[in-house]
Every structure is written in structure tokens, then in C-alpha cells.
Design brief:
This protein is of the alpha/beta class. Helix content is about 45%, strand content about 15%. The strands form three sheets. A six-stranded parallel β-sheet has the order 2-1-3-4-5-6, with helices on both faces. A six-stranded parallel β-sheet has the order 7-10-11-12-13-14. Strands 8-9 form a two-stranded antiparallel ribbon.
Length: about 500
């Protein structure tokens, strides 16, 4: 059996980082970790081929080679999924799909023959048994949450690592919090399940032996969901990183209560973490209460950000506008918070109701849903009727974007970050980073238009004079700013 595993194209979004890739001569920011793991669960006698459409083209020859086409996708990849599935069906291929996109929307895809939903450790073996016996059903689903200490290692040999800016490893699934708009609990449960320390070392070791050096994304939605176990794992990873002279710089996603745990922050930086994404959402207390983001209400959000920065980790932040209880001045408050926080990589989007979430069910019961979810909360779309006038909401949202990603305000924010940031160790420069620096001089310092290059040179001069240990971070932030300005012009 010849199986073609396809990861559909992700459109130009905050997380795609497409406009950054030319600075480092890479094709994609992140690897399709889910499909690489699925590949290890398929029968050993199957021939496998992986196409990540974010890094390479899917050719008709690839499709013709396959007996079956397996698609793994998120909601944001919906349009590309339809194209891939249609091409495969036109070529007479059997199409199998799984991933978050299909969890509650599988019935929208007539082109797909079989759906393997929920967590593949449970449902994929059931499908494979029936498939090989010639009695496969259309949908396989389960509420059982598997023990991920038994999850196989990703099949890295299917991937060309040279095409990617970072590698990925999963440590845990699930989150102890249950925010109304978030689908993580629906997908992975409220009890965080974690891999063993030995598993994590083995996954790090494999990437190291394959020659990877540089950025490594721990893809968990809340890395610190089980704080007792994660501390043990961090101690083990620190020993490994020290023994290997820190070949990986780590980044992840976590909840804001990280700032309340001094030991945890120190353990993370000791293990090599230098940045973390936080779901900050909003400075409006009434909106945090509305969406059940209780962990954000128990702390001073601005001070929490500064605390994490002072411990040697950059904070990337997610923000949402469009809650029912957002006050009329929410736009000004979001701008003020973002500017004062020094969060240059601020992903701010309009609230969207994702199928399966408590928010979706509430809005459905209130008769306020109006269209499907695009999966990109930064594209300016609304899939429900907001309490605030929709045009005022969209206009205010655009005002926030225009302000925070205008060159002057963006570079001011980078300098605010550098003022508080205290890197724990001096990292060895990778060739990729040296290349990015010289390309930044070309694209941002010479070819960029208007005042953009003036702000770029001012940042580099100030970073060199006053924040020399963080000079590399200054260059990186300048490059990310270019990506965000490109997105803003869409």
C-alpha cells in the first residue's frame, strides 16, 4: 500500500511567518508534527511519502503514485483541504482525513471517504483493522484520552529538515483551564497528560543526532498545565542541554500563572526556553470574567509580562476584541496595554466562535451564529452577531492593528521589551541567524521604504549601545515587524 500524507497549505497569517522566511532562506516556519507521528502508526509494510504544501508543491505525479491520500489539517487550512481532496478524488484515490478541522465539521467534506477523528492513538488502529478487513466505516471517533507515554516517535526520515525554520516536539495534551472560546478542552480534555522524561530526552536526542540545531517548538497549548511533572521534566532537559552545550533554543505556549512561579520560570530558562506565548486576551476585567479566563484575573497582567521578560523569556501575546462585555474604550485600552508591555509579537484578533466550544454552543442557543469559522481570528471576519455594532467593532479593530504595527510604535515596543529583557545566557549564533542579520540590512536597512529604515537603524544603534547582549533579539524583532507590516497591507 502506497500512502501519501499531505499537510495542506496555510494561508498568509500571523503564525505562518511567510514574510520572514526569505531572510533565512527557509520554506516553512513549522513542521507537520501530527502527520509525522501518524506515519509511525501506519503498517510497517506501507510505503510512505510526505508532502507539506507549505514547503513544497503537491504534484499530480505525487497523487498518481499513491493508493491512499491521508490529510491532516486545522480549521485554517480548510480551502487547501478541499483542493487536495478534490484532486485526489479526481485521480481515483481513496482519501482519509483527520485533525482539528474535521472534529466537528467532517460532514462538510463530501470528497473525503473516511475520517479518523479525535486522538489517533485510539481511532487509527480501529480504522486500520476495519480497512484491511474491507469493512471500513466513514467516521471513527472516540472520547477516550490515550496515554501519550505510549505515543510513537515521529517519522522524521520523511521530512527534509533543511526546509524549516524550527522543529517541533509535543510534551503534553490538555489544559486545566476551560476558557469559553477555546477548543482545547473539547479536543484534548482538562487533565493534562504528559510524556515521560525519558521520552522527551529520546525525542531531543533523535533531532540532535539528525543534525538539527536551533529553534525547537514545544507545541503544547499549555506547557505548564501539570506544573509538578513539568518541573521534573525541565530538570532532566536542563541536564541534557548542558551536556550537549545547548543545541536547542526552546519556545512554547503557557498560561499567565507562569509569572507567579519563580522556580518554574528559572527551570524553563535553565532548560533553554527563551520565549513563551501567553493568551492575555484583554485588559478588561469584565470580559475576562465573561469568557472564564480566571487565571488572568488573579494577576496584574502587565506586571506578569514584565516578570517573565526579566527572567529571560520574551513574551508573545494573544489578544481578543469582540467580547460581549467589552467596554466602548476597549480599543484604546488594548493599544495602551500592548505598547506598555513591550510585546512586539502581539496577535490581536476578533473573537470567533469555534465549533465545539462553549462559546459556539451559547451563541447558537442565542441565535447569534451567522457563518462558518475561518480559523484565522486575525482576518477581520466575524461568525456571530456581536453586542457592539459590527462596523464599529471592525473599524476599532483595524485602528488597533494600524497603530500597533505602524513602524514607530512597533519599534518603540521593541525598545520597551529590551529595557526589561534579561537574557540568561549568551547563545551561540547559528548560521541561520547570521544570514538573517545581513539580509535584514539589505531588506530593512537599504531597500525598505520611507521611515521604516530610519527606525530600523535607530533600533540597531540603540541595541548595540545599550542592550548589546540582546542585539540578536533586536534584529529578530525588526524582521518580525516586516512580516506584520506585510500582513497589515492585505
Amino acid at each position: 500500500m502506497k500512502a501519501l500524507l499531505v499537510y495542506p497549505a496555510i494561508p498568509d497569517t500571523f503564525w505562518s511567518f511567510k514574510h520572514i522566511l526569505k531572510f533565512i532562506r527557509k520554506r516553512a516556519a513549522h513542521v507537520p508534527l501530527g502527520l509525522l507521528t501518524i506515519a509511525s502508526m501506519l503498517p510497517e509494510d506501507w510505503q510512505l511519502r510526505l508532502i507539506d504544501m507549505n514547503a513544497q508543491d503537491l504534484s499530480d505525479r505525487d497523487i498518481a503514485w499513491a493508493d491512499v491520500v491521508l490529510i491532516g489539517a486545522m480549521v485554517i487550512q480548510r480551502e487547501s483541504v478541499k483542493d487536495v481532496a478534490s484532486r485526489a478524488k479526481a485521480a481515483g484515490k481513496l482519501v482519509i482525513a483527520g485533525g482539528p478541522l474535521f472534529s466537528s465539521m467532517w460532514n462538510e467534506f463530501d470528497e473525503i471517504d473516511h475520517f479518523v477523528l479525535s486522538e489517533a492513538e485510539i481511532t487509527l488502529p480501529l480504522f486500520l483493522e476495519d480497512f484491511q478487513a474491507g469493512r471500513a466505516k466513514r467516521v471513527y471517533d472516540s472520547d477516550i484520552k490515550p496515554d501519550i507515554t505510549k505515543t510513537p516517535l515521529p517519522k522524521w526520515e520523511l521530512l527534509n529538515m533543511k526546509l524549516y525554520a524550527s522543529m517541533s516536539v509535543q510534551y503534553s495534551r490538555g489544559c486545566p483551564f476551560d476558557c469559553e472560546f477555546c477548543d482545547i478542552v473539547n479536543l484534548n480534555g482538562r487533565r493534562p497528560r504528559v510524556k515521560s522524561n525519558e521520552q522527551m530526552v529520546r525525542e531531543f536526542e533523535i533531532l540532535y543526532n539528525l543534525g538539527w540545531r536551533g529553534r525547537l517548538f514545544i507545541v503544547d497549548d499549555n506547557f505548564i498545565g501539570n506544573r509538578v511533572k513539568v518541573k521534573s521534566t525541565l530538570r532532566t532537559l536542563t541536564e541534557w542541554q548542558i551536556a550537549k552545550k545547548y543545541p536547542f533554543s526552546l519556545f512554547t505556549e503557557a498560561s499567565v500563572n507562569l509569572a507567579q512561579d519563580e522556580e518554574l520560570m528559572q527551570l524553563m530558562t535553565s532548560a533553554g526556553f527563551d520565549s513563551v506565548f501567553l493568551g492575555l486576551e484583554t485588559p478588561a476585567e469584565e470580559s475576562l470574567m465573561e469568557c472564564g479566563k480566571h487565571q488572568n484575573r488573579s494577576v496584574d497582567l502587565l506586571e506578569a509580562v514584565k516578570t517573565i521578560q526579566r527572567h529571560g523569556m520574551e513574551v508573545m501575546g494573544g489578544f481578543i476584541i469582540g467580547f460581549d462585555n467589552d467596554p466602548p474604550n476597549i480599543f484604546e485600552r488594548q493599544i495602551k496595554f500592548i505598547q506598555n508591555s513591550g510585546i512586539s509579537k502581539a496577535m490581536i484578533g476578533l473573537l470567533n466562535a469555534i465549533p465545539g466550544t462553549r462559546l459556539y454552543k451559547r451563541l447558537q442557543s442565542e441565535g447569534r451564529l451567522i457563518q462558518g469559522c475561518t480559523g484565522d481570528n486575525c482576518d477581520g471576519s466575524l461568525n456571530f452577531i456581536p453586542k457592539m455594532d459590527a462596523q464599529i467593532l471592525r473599524d476599532g479593530y483595524q485602528t488597533v492593528l494600524n497603530y500597533i504595527y505602524s513602524p514607530r510604535e512597533y519599534y518603540d515596543r521593541v525598545l520597551e521589551f529590551l529595557k526589561d529583557y534579561r537574557p540568561v545566557r549568551r547563545r551561540r549564533l547559528q548560521l541561520l541567524e547570521i544570514r538573517a542579520f545581513f539580509n535584514s540590512i539589505l531588506y530593512l536597512g537599504i531597500l525598505d521604504k520611507g521611515k521604516n529604515k530610519i527606525y530600523y537603524w535607530k533600533l540597531l544603534i540603540k541595541a548595540f549601545l545599550f542592550h548589546r547582549q540582546s542585539f540578536g533579539e533586536a534584529v529578530s524583532h525588526a524582521i518580525f515587524g516586516y512580516h506584520f507590516r506585510k500582513l497589515l497591507k492585505k
